[in-house]
Amino acid sequence: MLARDTTSPQPRALADAGVVVAAALHTDPAPLARHLVDQAADDRQVVWVGSADADPGLTDALAAEVARRGDAPEIEVLVGAWDLPGSRLLDAVAVMDRLRSPGGCPWDAQQTHRSLVPYLIEEAHEAVEAVESGDREHLVEELGDVLLQVLFHARVADEDEEAGFDIDDVAAGLVAKLVRRHPHVFGAVDAPDAAAVEANWEQIKATEKPEREHPLDGIPAGMPELARAAKVASRLERAGHGDRLRELVADRTRTDGADPEASTDPGAALMAVVLQARAQGVDPSAALRALLRDLAEQDFGGLQDYRVTR
Questions:
Q1: Pairs from 237-244 (Cβ < 8 Å, separation ≥ 24)
Q2: Hey, which residues does 3 pair with through a beta bridge?
Q3: Quick one: which of 292, 245, 309, 295 has its CA closest to 271?
Q4: Which of 38, 55, 54 is nearest to 46 (CA)?
Q5: 89 partner at 20 to 30 Å CA-CA among 26, 117, 225, 269?
Q6: What is the DSSP string of 190-222?
Q7: How far apart are CA 267 and CA 252, in angstroms?
Q8: Which CATH code, of 3.40.50.300, 3.30.2130.10, 3.40.50.720, 1.10.287.1080, is assigned to 88-195?
């Protein structure tokens, strides 16, 4: 098995699959054709892996070499291809289109952006659980379910005659945003470490988004409360209000000493825990989920009888 350039994509893909591909001794068409035909002597099979430029002149040179020899080997030309990373996404788009098209799935055809919201939230939570479980096969499955939600919403939107968009619009917007927000990769901006990258990111976002009237504008109200509290703390700290936040929380968690629980604000107490976790570099939501998983694995014995009271 020979190729002109063993570092090109197709020979590398073969090498990754355990197939040895050697570099050809010649690159010019005529000597290369003679070499390939010589190698095919004694009924040996020779495979030439085509180059990206389609090897100009090689086909004619092979035809001339075969015509010149009386006992030339049989030559078969196969057009090969390989799947580049992401090519199966096209299959996923095609399947989604089939499900929503006439003759597809009746349930899928009835869904709207609003009806799909619970599934989007559920699949995101299940993906997080898969990440934290460490089960790689489970993670592959759950990420697929998250991807399905993206494809589903894009397909639904494509049917909107007034304000439609499709999966290509979604992908194009994402690509533009990633390129725009990574000038240290796609431009000439210098960002030697993660802190510099984050600072650049925030500066770029500030120019893209309309000016906020309040530092907490834009935080989704539907976020889980613990995650939202962490986001609020992060946003206020970045805006320079971290000390003020800690003062407010401390004021609302102080007691008068006589009755320690009388003046304690449970919400402020929870926020204090969030601030403590962030100071330790811990995601409070992840920490609580870890505890809940541990409790679920504990042996608490059998269920006890209990009486329901009004």
A1: 238/202, 239/215, 241/215
A2: 23, 49
A3: 245
A4: 38
A5: 117
A6: ---SHHHHHHHHHHHHHHHSPPPSSTTTT--TT
A7: 9
A8: 1.10.287.1080
Whether pTM > 0.70 for this model: the answer is no
Full pLDDT tens readout for the chain, 310 residues: 999 999 888 888 888 889 999 998 888 999 999 999 888 877 788 999 988 788 889 989 988 888 888 777 888 877 666 566 788 898 999 999 999 999 999 999 999 999 999 999 999 999 999 998 899 999 999 999 999 999 999 999 999 989 899 999 999 999 999 999 899 888 888 888 888 888 888 788 777 776 677 888 888 888 888 888 999 999 899 888 999 999 999 888 876 555 555 557 889 989 999 999 999 999 988 898 889 888 888 887 765 655 555 4
- Laid out side by side, the sheet with 22-23 consists of 22-23, 2-3, 48-49
Q: What is the DSSP letter of 2?
A: E
- Using CA atoms, how far apart are residues 101 and 177, in angstroms rounded to an integer? 31
Spatial separation of the C-alpha atoms in residues 277 and 291, rounded to whole Å: 14
Q: Are strands 48-49 and 22-23 parallel, antiparallel or unpaired?
A: unpaired
Nearest residue to 178 via CA among 187, 191, 167, 168: 187
Helix axes 284-297, 225-238, angle to 10 degrees: 150
The CB density around residue 248, as the number of other CB atoms within 10 Å, is: 14
Domains of the chain by residue range: 2-68, 88-195, 214-297
